[in-house]
User: Fold these one by one.
Assistant:
Number 1:
Amino acid sequence: MTAAPKKVVLAYSGGLDTSIILKWLQAEYGCEVITFTADLGQGEELEPARAKAELLGIKPENIHIEDVREEFVRDYVFPMFRANAVYEGLYLLGTSIARPLIAKRLVELAHQHGADAVAHGATGKGNDQVRFELSAYALDPSIKVIAPWRLWDLTSRTKLIEFAEANQIPIAKDKRGEAPFSVDANLLHTSSEGKALENPAEEAPDYVYARTVSPEDAPDTPEYIEITFEKGDAVAINGQAMSPATLLTALNDHGRKHGIGRLDFVENRFVGMKSRGIYETPGGTILLEAHRGIEQITLDSGSGHLKDSLMPRYAELIYNGFWFSPEREMLQALIDKSQDYVSGTVRLKLYKGSANTVGRWSDMSLYSEAHVTFEDDAGAYDQKDAAGFIRLNALRLKLIGNRNARVK
Amino acid sequence: MTAAPKKVVLAYSGGLDTSIILKWLQAEYGCEVITFTADLGQGEELEPARAKAELLGIKPENIHIEDVREEFVRDYVFPMFRANAVYEGLYLLGTSIARPLIAKRLVELAHQHGADAVAHGATGKGNDQVRFELSAYALDPSIKVIAPWRLWDLTSRTKLIEFAEANQIPIAKDKRGEAPFSVDANLLHTSSEGKALENPAEEAPDYVYARTVSPEDAPDTPEYIEITFEKGDAVAINGQAMSPATLLTALNDHGRKHGIGRLDFVENRFVGMKSRGIYETPGGTILLEAHRGIEQITLDSGSGHLKDSLMPRYAELIYNGFWFSPEREMLQALIDKSQDYVSGTVRLKLYKGSANTVGRWSDMSLYSEAHVTFEDDAGAYDQKDAAGFIRLNALRLKLIGNRNARVK
Amino acid sequence: MTAAPKKVVLAYSGGLDTSIILKWLQAEYGCEVITFTADLGQGEELEPARAKAELLGIKPENIHIEDVREEFVRDYVFPMFRANAVYEGLYLLGTSIARPLIAKRLVELAHQHGADAVAHGATGKGNDQVRFELSAYALDPSIKVIAPWRLWDLTSRTKLIEFAEANQIPIAKDKRGEAPFSVDANLLHTSSEGKALENPAEEAPDYVYARTVSPEDAPDTPEYIEITFEKGDAVAINGQAMSPATLLTALNDHGRKHGIGRLDFVENRFVGMKSRGIYETPGGTILLEAHRGIEQITLDSGSGHLKDSLMPRYAELIYNGFWFSPEREMLQALIDKSQDYVSGTVRLKLYKGSANTVGRWSDMSLYSEAHVTFEDDAGAYDQKDAAGFIRLNALRLKLIGNRNARVK
Amino acid sequence: MTAAPKKVVLAYSGGLDTSIILKWLQAEYGCEVITFTADLGQGEELEPARAKAELLGIKPENIHIEDVREEFVRDYVFPMFRANAVYEGLYLLGTSIARPLIAKRLVELAHQHGADAVAHGATGKGNDQVRFELSAYALDPSIKVIAPWRLWDLTSRTKLIEFAEANQIPIAKDKRGEAPFSVDANLLHTSSEGKALENPAEEAPDYVYARTVSPEDAPDTPEYIEITFEKGDAVAINGQAMSPATLLTALNDHGRKHGIGRLDFVENRFVGMKSRGIYETPGGTILLEAHRGIEQITLDSGSGHLKDSLMPRYAELIYNGFWFSPEREMLQALIDKSQDYVSGTVRLKLYKGSANTVGRWSDMSLYSEAHVTFEDDAGAYDQKDAAGFIRLNALRLKLIGNRNARVK
């Protein structure tokens, strides 16, 4: 960073850490600070952030509190779910997918306010710093990004508290000590990691889970729901049409009730180390299962296998922070192209931690009972065709077999 | 098929259908028939197959009944699980992986007996014909493969029964009518498909499930087990070393009890149509979860992501019947190379249909609490490195951003 | 084929073989025949095909002769070149890419004439039958496709000539004997294979080459040309704007003159065998080199590497006949997305068999001399960033190194 | 770098730049310096480096000059060529593949001498720093790597010369000024980049080329050579067995004479910028063509297509410096597995810049004239099999076609 920033848009949660950052920015650079607080469905009241920002000296016109839940689900979560994206086999990318949207709004607000920098509260060890900054730089190559955790000397809880006290930042009683673990939440998921969870050999204690009941405490009777898709996106539950965020909220309620979507996971961070996280993705877990269910009857093998083979790469791009990259957009174009006929309804059974497809139907179905039937198929399929099919598929293998026998 | 076969090795289950095939081969070709009946863990008594074969005129020295369970798990199931292979996102390939072993033994017995052909009872619509035949041709390019279902005119249940009666083939009472669905079983899984299951919109009735209790009927209390791996293969449960087949059998018991491994699935067959199957893979589902769990701490991202990206192709090869192909062997070499350090123990919670990793530890772990800790890391990681890391990863995106802004 | 076709659209070249097919269709099925003769740039007069079709009894309104060169290059060749598609490392897919267009016109004419079938003259051993038929079935699942070479008993040259004579089909003198090899040509390439070329150990004789001078006979002085691209497609040569087919024709002239684009190749056919072909793709070879040249400065690594990694799959789809498949269209969407900024000009040196990029420039260039310069870069790039970049990329490798040292 | 290094092994060329580094290390850290000078086939006398090192105060026992050409070709170049590796479609990775070997020897010498650090002369903008350092860290996670170009303030030619003069470092007359471009050379290639070559629009002047005659100056008569392979590696030229380095040297002579292997290229560096290089890879270009030629008849499509699809990833790993990574080793295991039967001989025509396969033969050939022949194949292939093959491949497309027609 050559020159000090003059005006900074800060991703501000209203919590202690970002309040400290707010003050530190003012103190360090003497710069004007604009705050951006987004309702991504994290389940917290945001208006207190306004009062707090004002208390910390931010001008009212520099305080932005926005409900971005619909944009979040429609333009980020849903496109990602079209790909059935999971990172390293299991993680539904709940944190990863929220960062580009926040970065985009930070940059847009910077342009609106004539600010030359944006700032975030992610640490120097994690993935979020990468996601924020790659997104910001992609959207505005000349923007400055300030990551106080990599810059300041407030390297212990004690120093942070001292700084807060010295700067008249209110400290909630339960924030004086160290939190037993760190939490991130949005409409798609809640993640918990660090400290009490750092030993991957030990089962996470039940109090870590915030978004789901324990499967043991879930209802003893299964519940069935039906999710309807249009072109790869969920549009209705049990026949009732809903907006994207409304639908995901409703799925979260279903998932919470039935203890669905808990994941104890050790993952590879982009910055090179492994970390252990506890994830809860109640609605997303149901949605992924349902999307796979509707693709089962509406996608052919050529489309499905191509998507499947590229999914890990797509998921890795999102995890690593490359949402706003040309290669993610190229993959998105491929994936979206596959979803033209992914419409129909899936019936799922929710029960004590599981969401399982038990039925699916669609006007767009490629399933042909006429072909597959064990009964008389009325000539739909000539079994003798299989002989030629197999013999030509085998020809290469026979030539290899002959060669290998010849030369051994 | 130009000339009639003289001596045929038949994959013989002892059931009505393969007994009809046995007689049909004798009648159609006047050939000598050798029977091969394998114990793959399907859970049926095999000795009755001997008596039945004798009754149908097979010479005792031409009757082969073998327990291949250890070979099956050691040389087929375990190598496949090293890859975390699932077909189309969900299917654990339980039928697919058994066919190459059967084909291999058929060909070996053909060589031993000087037979010129092998025969199987798979129909002309399914994948199994492909798997049997590609395997047989790969192992012996000059072998003949006879698939009576593609050849004969016994195209209805009535005709089959008539043929059986005309040929003194005993018919169990419950085999006179049509079975409500078709079943395949081995130590890894049981699959059910066809007829009563042909409508993918309708939930499969509970009586279809043969290998697992319903999650609703599973114990109300979770059970914890620990699975130990060496170089990617499971070797012990709860500290007790077991042979491959013994271990999988024990996992099946755990899975059955807790209702784990049920799957209602619509898949794309290699021959071009979709079919719906109900799969039960109790032990395999636990094993897959555990293998992922141990890889989480023992595999780095480079290895893991490469494996992940190739898994769909590897699974497709197995599904399509290309086990004995050079490309499957190439992928196996890659996967096996990745497993050198995949050793350690995973702790799982089994509960009402779910098997979830809740802890994992290993002498070979790459997880470094020293690096990831939220606490002071004593210099293990310099957070300032992240700034350079991000800036160089962003450089390309900035150049793109500048270009796009310039030309738009 | 259950029922005989009533009306057939035949891909008719006017040559002896397809004339025999024409008559055979009439004789075998008593059906009406519509002929389709396309000018794909193969360099033959097509009007004689009209006279010949009339002579063989085809009604004038059933004779279609069309110049499809612009459509061929614009909608098939150019999209393929956006992908830099080569099959098995070297083959530019000149035959493969023409078949879908012919099949499409056959099906469209069938619809126009109310025909229930289409017919082609490809043999049962090659790829072209697959390409024709997969395309036709994809475009009209109910169409019948007749492949006389797989059906009739005219299995020797003698029998063909006898049939021709018996049916008053004129036979050019040079067609009585066997051709020394088989040729296919269109605006993109000429392929030669079979008979005299069947021994892959022997160099192809020079008389096989029809579209290019020998490099030894090419001018002793290099020629420089400049090709301009817009969004991935060539639009001008030496500053002169041209339509797609005009441009490819002009490049062919350049390539012919300089002996560019000869390939002696052994490839794997989709039907399982290897074959040896001699290909001449003069203009296409120049175009591929130029397209790579312009991508070098206009595509970033993320886009380019993603394209590169999918190219073999895309090329295989085209080679195997899956142009009209959803997966080809998905890949095309991805590739086309990458070409938005692939505009600019490439300078090439043509000399005795080689076409080499020697310069390239573009308003859309991502090349930044400011960054790469060995001179003072005025702060565009901070070399110290590289330290952090490397250290975080190395972190994983260090953790592996430590682990491996610990456990060995 | 926390503490100053005590003993450093320096990759020392004997040239001015690394001599300055040598002195700077002594001055900056007061450390003992060990020099390592490798003969990688760069074509320079290395003994002068010994005298120069001694002159600069290095103890004789701390000076290492080694001929590593055989190891280089056998363990690095040849394994890479088994993959047909090219970066971004065209670059044969000549610089990339040499760096891991140098880094490995630096680390080994560090262990031998009890040194705690290694040092290299690569700048902070390029790929080589990454390759050196990732290799070193992978082989010894605790080693320090010193990259003076990222550390010192000798940021202009003038300062470097002043430092040299102040430290009694002899300066050859032609080194006082700036070189017009930067050169790297080894047995596989020579690369030139920077300064005079920084404008990618301008053709590189002929004097840049050091390893090949201009195609225009190459012989007017083609030369034919035959290269014999065993398990994927070249072992003989024209029937004469040679060691790896001897063989590559001989191929370089052939390539030089015929002007083969020149490449004008703009590539994407790992550090995020584009750069333009002029590469000459005379022997390697011939070797790549020949290896592809022998694979054409000895590799089946399954193996070949799998290799092809992974090649870009493999090449990118080498380019980016991940030779000593588990994923490169996994890919190598896959590739090596494919080469078991890649033995035989390729005949090439060398002429004015081109090396083209014109014949290939092998005892291991999979090419079957019996199958492919246009003549009577004596029943090797039943053309009717193709009908079933096509119909089952088309089934999916037909189902899609029906669906799309139904719903549109």
Note: The radius of gyration of chain A is 25 Å.
Number 2:
Amino acid sequence: MKKISAVLVLFFPFFSVNGQQPNPAQYVNPLIGTQKMGHTYPGATVPFGSVQLSPDTDQQPHNIGGKYNKDAYKYCAGYQYDDSSIVGFSHTHFSGTGHSDLGDFLIMPSVGELQLEPGSKADPKSGFRSAFSHANEIAEPGYYKVKLDDDNIWAEMTATTRVGFHQYTFPKSDNAHIIFDLMHGIYNYDDKNVWTFVRVENDRTIVGYRQTNGWARTRTVYFAMEFSKPFSSYGFKNFGKEDYKGFWRKFDQSKNFPEMAGKQIRAYFDFKTEDGEKVNIKFSLSPVSTEGAMKNLKAEIPHWDFERTKREAKAEWNKELGKIDVTAPSRDDLVNFYTALYHTFLSPTVYMDVDGKYKGLDQNTHQANGFTNYTTFSLWDTYRALHPFFNIVQPKRNRDMVRSMMAHYDQSVHKMLPVWSHYANENWCMIGYHSVSVIADAIVKNNIEGIDAGKTLDAMAQTARTKYYDGLEHYMKMGYVPEDKNSSSVSKTLEYAYDDWCIAQAAKKLNRTDIFNEFSKRSENWKNVYDSSSGFMRPKMSDGKFREKFDALQTHDQGFIEGNAWNYSLYVPHDPAEMIEMMGGKAKFSKHMDELFTMHLPDEFFAETEDITREGIIGNYVHGNEPAHHAAYLYNWTDDKWKTQERVRMILKNQYRPTPDGLGGNDDCGQMSAWYLFSALGFYPVAPGSDQYALGSPVIKTATIKLENGKTLSIEALNQSDKNVYVEKVLVNGKQIDRPYLTHAEIINGGKITFYMSETAKR
Amino acid sequence: MKKISAVLVLFFPFFSVNGQQPNPAQYVNPLIGTQKMGHTYPGATVPFGSVQLSPDTDQQPHNIGGKYNKDAYKYCAGYQYDDSSIVGFSHTHFSGTGHSDLGDFLIMPSVGELQLEPGSKADPKSGFRSAFSHANEIAEPGYYKVKLDDDNIWAEMTATTRVGFHQYTFPKSDNAHIIFDLMHGIYNYDDKNVWTFVRVENDRTIVGYRQTNGWARTRTVYFAMEFSKPFSSYGFKNFGKEDYKGFWRKFDQSKNFPEMAGKQIRAYFDFKTEDGEKVNIKFSLSPVSTEGAMKNLKAEIPHWDFERTKREAKAEWNKELGKIDVTAPSRDDLVNFYTALYHTFLSPTVYMDVDGKYKGLDQNTHQANGFTNYTTFSLWDTYRALHPFFNIVQPKRNRDMVRSMMAHYDQSVHKMLPVWSHYANENWCMIGYHSVSVIADAIVKNNIEGIDAGKTLDAMAQTARTKYYDGLEHYMKMGYVPEDKNSSSVSKTLEYAYDDWCIAQAAKKLNRTDIFNEFSKRSENWKNVYDSSSGFMRPKMSDGKFREKFDALQTHDQGFIEGNAWNYSLYVPHDPAEMIEMMGGKAKFSKHMDELFTMHLPDEFFAETEDITREGIIGNYVHGNEPAHHAAYLYNWTDDKWKTQERVRMILKNQYRPTPDGLGGNDDCGQMSAWYLFSALGFYPVAPGSDQYALGSPVIKTATIKLENGKTLSIEALNQSDKNVYVEKVLVNGKQIDRPYLTHAEIINGGKITFYMSETAKR
């Protein structure tokens, strides 16, 4: 390998990640997406880690006076790059979500007079929050460092899968504190807490849990926390409802009383520190118990060597990121690529103790036998590209994700696969039942080893037959969701139809004719909402007529969700050819697509488009939301395939930049990044559940994917440059192909794919 | 045995419980104590059962407008005999407590229009509650039946250890309901709920849990519920905070949606019923999980035969009650005796699943290996007579209770034995650390088999050294609790001194000289609060002077709790002789005692005496509260032992009556009843932790105690009658004894104790 690497370096000396010690992590900038709408977090985590230990720059209630508080949305990941103060460091964060939750267990060091209120952004000194500046901030995979200016404390953090490792370097003080805020949270900050429970086991160890009612309705996270040095005293304040007074008659519980509980509490621990003294905290999480949290803590970090854990976290990242070896025209491309790869490896997250115990959807404790249980399935987003990407780069993990989804199904009282699930909860966010896409894709791509595929198929069919789910009964009866019965009806009809096609594909693969027939038929339901008079998909009423009120530019109340008719009408990923035919044929469709990408979307329509910045739009094409993620590839079904190449390169360039504001929309648990990765490599899974990938235009120069089956896939883009966005021809293992797609076999069996790039489109 | 029984019947034909099928349960009237201050419940339970399925006649908030609501107190056991309507039947009840909690999972049948509010006492028809009358009510051990007049429904219930079995006989209705109220509770009714979670697994099975913050700060009870017939529809209403709206956008969750959660919810299940149709419900509890609750349900009642479970419950009661075979002068005496025995066998309650899993004080799930885990330790009450009684009649259970207390200790973050514990919580109620009395009594009486006695001793010592506990640091430093530092200081000083003596006794038995010395010394601390000028124990300040303000009749703010100086000053159970000497010698003390029993306590002082009716007082002697429970026996340490006999018989007669209002004070988890049982048998454990029982005056004619060691103790009171309250002589195995006490060996080794009763006192 060393020799080959040397050769590669010779050929592509400029930004190779090869060398003695492969260090792709150097290209990752976790700050990308932390500004504006990316909703990523900059803190420390390991690949798919349960702990995301990251600074929160504010906490905002989800509602104020019963009304939605728009500011809450900015803090979906806890951190906004434009802020100039940090409230503290909490242990759980979603990466790139649009709604949110989590933000559990905020830790904040301070010196001087104890402050138990966070204080305001305008005046950080009014509370325990502290000013900071990006000049004193380092964010790397598995490591985060910042100087807290108010008290001159350096904060560093790293992590293992289940343990956050803090390191605070204090000034000399007789009055140093670690504040432990159990009220802090992301979304619904002041009324999300249901209960918190804390035990001070000894002068270094604390355990407990926090139970919330937020996006996850019934959610509990357990913790164990250990200090590197004993605290001299401690206490807490209950900001919520007073306890039964008997407790308080007997003790002064506010000070040095080892048991704390309540709905709203903040605790603190006092130290004396020398100048430059480091106080470390190991903080572990468990889905099931404090006992489990203690086990995790002891198993994963049995020492106090912060540098060692930091090193190991970095190594773990390099191992995962190193699965794809890339060279590219510019360092920015590498930063974009590896940061996207980093973002795709953040979630779903491991959700079980070191001994395999996890909380199930039924709120019972279960044992994961023979698999790693994962949570945080943002499936409406991630079925599109993230899971297909995993089928190539993380096939084992994807199998375990399928197993986790099946465990969810087994534990579901609805007998449904997950829709949007996190932390032993179904939050029902968005639409469709896209678990079936993820599983069908795994089945079709033969990444189902060790899983009872027949059972997954039954689960898929059963899920798709849940009458009371979101208009399904109407859909099953009438072939579409009527808008007067259930809103966003067109989006639902289109996505159900695609999902049904996925089920049919899995059934075909498994020779289950009955299910194949049932769902093949359903998969054509998209046709029922196409309005030939307007040329768009359009909401239909239960009387069979299209709704009169209709505006193809508007997003809200037009029968769609997170997309207008222009974007959403393209959503027939499983049968673009038929769709194009219906919309007037290839030539007309190609023009229609051009219009999408080039028209001007007036501000009034943009204003109501959620989750994205103005930059998240190209013309009227909304890349910041997912429904049209496959759209640029649809030219492949026309005679203007070169337009796909052009558009894809434009999106890659416009929508992904190596800066904090570099993401034009929510990263959505890696979906936006997975789009980047596929497209950067030159192909994209327009219809997960098929074994085909539409060809686009790669942005890399070379990529070597080390597959888990031991094989290697090399991708080479000859004559690559910013100008040469067109693909002249594509060779698979030296043989030119005359079709606009690759097959999964061509990828997973390894070999070489060569793109010949050109400045001229091949019309 | 049969033959012996026959002989007994020959001698004492009149109210023997012997016969072909011993049926002592016939003498039990669970309604005794349900009126006024007894705080017992009339519903169905088995001995020490986890489920207490009982009617609740009202639900009262613990506080109204931030102030204590006196009416809550009336409903400590959910049922007040004077009420004329029933709200429903809930599954958990304390027997006889002074504070309260529980009342989980209320079930109520109804027909006609669905009502989801309970309605008012004044107008039961305004809600789902129903009028009832005692004429249509049957309460027996393990069985309760009542007619719900409003809807003409007969309700019956029985139970196993972990499962309540309901039977509702409906009229014909197209609109019959079972209401399932998860908001209902005892104490803190409207804000005790922290969270509730319910899943409708299928059209007959429901599981879930309820989490409360009441007397127990952090308490969760899990359930599983099965109907004998499928419901046709169901639904629920959330009376609390609204959920994250995403849940509700997708579904109409109010109807036929199988997952319910919230802080305040009531559910309902609809049926069609024929006239006279019975609908049964099996309802199981678990301390750890819904999975555990399902296991318990299937293991304990794997059928739908209500009569069978009822029969088995009765048989279980007869087995336990049959451990003492009694004859007595009147049926009333038998009713008093067996009802008292019934009440002593209600708690502590089994607190683990059929597979041994239970929730520990650390909120983790633990496995009870080799013992049955119990909860509900009302130790300030029950150390006095209940646990000593168990050391005779329920030694195995008492050992398991000690094991349960040790498990509590092991799981305690304070490393303390229980003070007042229930459902994996320490509620810290009342004072002292009387676990040590229970354990010392077991050690001294050799009922410690299979338990690491040395470890229990360390636990006792460790508990007694918890500086931050309730004035202990001062007590340890100064030899008393100073009233200016910690209120109820005299009661605390006296009880700590007694508890310390218990530790010393255990240490002596186990040859642990260090601990013996330490705690023997501490056990004399009672002397530090005796004020010779007033002749009473009296609050002392931290400057070493007695507090000036002092009123020996007042109860509140006099340095005592639940007792005035007259009653509490007698509290030196471990050294009455020394106490009497200090108080002026035998003769003076005897007169002092006479005054206690005969003086008139003005109403103003009674008014502030908690937990008792006017009848719970004899003179100024308060039997309805516990501190002076040993007092009547103190004459034994004077030359007027006959006065003990007279007073005891007076108390037995006045304070225990076979009527709903028959208990003069809270039964306190069996302590009041255990006092009755000991005294009725002729002896009483003045100082648990010693092996001596002070002699009194039995009220029975004969009693045969079938000991677990296979031996039999016969007690005979010759010439017994209501008038013959004096004991002429006592023979142990035919040999007259010349001391006023029995030893534990004389009891536990079996044999015969004969009292010769007389109308004349032996002066």
Note: DSSP finds 21 helices and 38 strands in chain B.
